[in-house]
Protein 1
Amino acid sequence: MSDRLQKVIAQAGIASRREAETMISEGRVIVNGAVVTEQGMKVDPASDYIKVDGKRLKKASRKVYILLNKPKRYITTRHDPEGRPTVMDLIADVKDRVSPVGRLDYETEGLLLLTNDGDLANALMHPKNEVEKTYWAKVRGHLSEETLLKIARGGISLPTGKTAPCKIRKIHETKENGWVELVLHEGKKREIRRVLERVGHPVVKLKRVAYAFLKIRALGIGKYRHLTSYEIKKLQAIALGEPFEPPVLKKAPVKRLAKPSVKKTRSAAPAPKQRRKS
């Protein structure tokens, strides 16, 4: 079955569809012996010989979904030309080939999804689906209510364009710094850092604490876990904008214990009264 080359690469779990387009433009993809640099070429993974970065494309044998608590100073990519550590180093024992869903900055820590389900990854990252991402930011100084409202309304000009509306609230303050929670539907490159610096409150620390309904909870820094089937189904429903009905747990039937049979026995006859001797 023919499909667009970038989609086929994404479905194989090598990269997101956007990253696959970059790979094609950079001449890193070969189809049937010829380098492909134009977007939109249709291929059939069952019959066409496709190589990405010198390795033959293989269809993912199974779908894998991983939740990682990314530490600071790790690159959110499969490879880094500068030789810096990547998030792939943290899941080196995972045999399936997976890729990050979106990115977290080098200095940003927190929740990151990785999967070889290209369709789901693309749906989660598409702005039209408005999948919420929640961040905690430690900033210099204290944000005023006016500044919070300005950020929430959106429309702040950045090199990547104007910001979209978001949710923001104070969660903690110290003498010199403040902590705020931001909930975004879309996140352009370094958007939170740029916005807060623009309003005069540079970021000291930034952490993603939730992706849709998924939360880090007790997952240690640098640790990962596989999503449960329940979480996968719910995430797919959110990405596709479909209603999600949690499975109904069937109650085990209550076994009624049979009443023990009680045999009626005749009571012993009362002993005859002895006559008092006079």
Note: Residues 132-211 form a domain with the Alpha-Beta Plaits fold (CATH 3.30.70.1560).
Protein 2
Amino acid sequence: MPSFKTRALSALRAAAPRSSTKSALVGLDGFVDTIVTPVAQRTAQGDAFTPITNIPDFAARIAGAAGKSTNLEFYPLMDKLGGNGPIMAAALLAGGTKITYVGALGHPSIHPVFQSFAAGAEVVSLAAPATTTAVEFQDGKLMFGQLRSLDTITLSKIDEVMGAARFRASLASADLVALVNWTMIPNMSDIFTALVDEVLPALPVRSAELPPRLFFFDLADPEKRTRSDLRDVLHLIARFSAHGQVTLGLNLKEAQQVADVLALSSPDKDEASLRASAAAIRDKLGVATVVVHPRESAACATAAGTAWIPGPYTDKPLITTGAGDHFNGGFSQGQLLGLDPESCLALGACTSGHYVRTGISPTLTDLESFLASWA
């Protein structure tokens, strides 16, 4: 029997020509990410230092400052396009999907880190981008954000800057609507409520000849939000099912947080637990698809059952910030192309795997090569 990699490769090759016919509306955040390495011991200027390679050692350095003080140096590696929305949209754009992006990309002009992305997409900037200092370790990353500009993102702001008619036309024509980073956009729940109560019901009925509209949601680490806020937004997200097929994408930590507020068993990293958790969350919310993707593998649940694949894990990535958003982009690309859930997982894993090794969002040709060499 062919492996899941062989099946996904065959499905991708058959479906790839359809990518240019697909469109997505993505939003609503935007960040300038500064990727840094924490310095343990410096011996000279520049990159002549020993890094702090893991989070426990970094935590110990911070704990040692209690009652005293300390100096921590972050050595900058790069500034890059950031935010769950722009990174996911960039992955979809590289895969050939037409992108309309609405979010915080710069004010009064587009910030330089988004210029290349903006050249290939239709972009509407609502505000200055937020900023993140991403401290990367071998066992994870810490994201230090300044988010004030995201406070201004509301539906009325979208209507003011983009125009109400243009925004609704973009919603109506999109094959995929991805609304991500609920955690960091304070008014996102109000936007969701207005969309399901007022905006989406007023859109023209989607042609029966077209596949159902896809909705994708990524909460983006809701640890700092209250349990009641998280529970409420999960049920808000489920209401989008009246207007299309809803996918909720979760990393392992997010899946554990969601399971907790829904009074479900908390998932672990093993295959059986991931399958069971994805299915339980899906059943509880009544959405079309739930995806759970730790770093080493990924699982999803749909009406057809569950699927799971191991990931192309590397213990020496070039970059990790944005890996999950690339997974989301690849998985959604597979959905747009009409691939089966297992192949969608494979596209997500390969999109993320290519990105963490190269720092570049892969084309579909790149994904074919990655799948072929992985197989």
Note: The domain at 4-35+81-374 is CATH 3.40.1190.20 (UDP-N-acetylmuramoyl-L-alanine:D-glutamate ligase).
Protein 3
Amino acid sequence: MSTYFQSKEDAEQNARWYLVDAAGLTVGRLASEIAHIIRGKHKPTFTPHVNCGDCVVVINAEKVKFSGNKLEGKIYFSHSQFPGGLKSVKAGDMLNKHPERVIEHAVHGMLPKGNLGHRMLRNLRVYAGSEHPHGAQKLEVFTPKYVTR
């Protein structure tokens, strides 16, 4: 008996595309299910060191919601690596200006750190409205299990 490890070529051939409508969903719960799909943990051929996940297209990112008081209390930080280069943005402001970044940031935090996680993040496409340019792919509608509207 030997353990099966999926190769990179097999993973690329078996990749599927999912469409997620984020309208009215909570950010963290939605991000955990998206990260689960992008990582490939829902497949029986999951291999931890290979990018074997599927692609996810998220629409209506501007209509997500935060639980509790996170719109005013949650702060996103970034630093330019220069003295005095710390920038902070509240979640409500980021949701108004760049709603795509809210979901991207949440999913990015749930993926592995390093090169593998960066390659997995390329399988995520987030759009603020309901329009997207991925009509040529055979998109399967994905309804999150643990998220309620």
Note: Residues 27-39 form the longest helix (13 residues).
